[in-house]
Design goal:
110 residues, mainly alpha, iron, transmembrane, metal ion binding, elongated, SuccDH_FuR_B_TM-su, heme
Length: 110
């Protein structure tokens, strides 16, 4: 039952990430074509709750999606099972979340 839940959660996070990736790429293309500098981009994102929510959701989805994917690889290729497998998944997920959350905070509110 756990593997079905993880499978479905990974698919749901993929559905969330798809429009977020497209939105991110569209914004990057707009910024590059507009000739915006990093300072100008940060000037537009600092203090923005909308960008915080956009990229915050992105980080949560990627953290969950990536951790579940690494869990599957660690099980199939690394032979991890049981508590070690779950610990690896949680460590990867929390690590991805911590790095992503720090970046989102730096871009929007720091």
């Amino acid at each position: 039952m756990l593997s079905l839940r993880l499978y479905m959660l990974q698919r749901i996070t993929a559905l969330l990430m798809a429009p977020l990736v497209i939105g991110h790429i569209a914004v990057m293309i707009y910024a590059i074509q507009g000739g915006l500098s990093a300072a100008e981009i940060l000037g537009r994102t600092q203090g923005s709750v909308a960008w915080f929510l956009f990229y915050g959701l992105f980080v949560v989805a990627v953290s969950i999606h990536g951790a579940i994917g690494v869990r599957a690889v660690a099980h199939e290729w690394g032979g991890l099972k049981g508590a070690a497998l779950d610990a690896a998944m949680w460590a990867i997920g929390l690590g991805l979340f911590a790095l992503g959350a720090r970046a989102v905070w730096a871009v929007t509110f720091a």
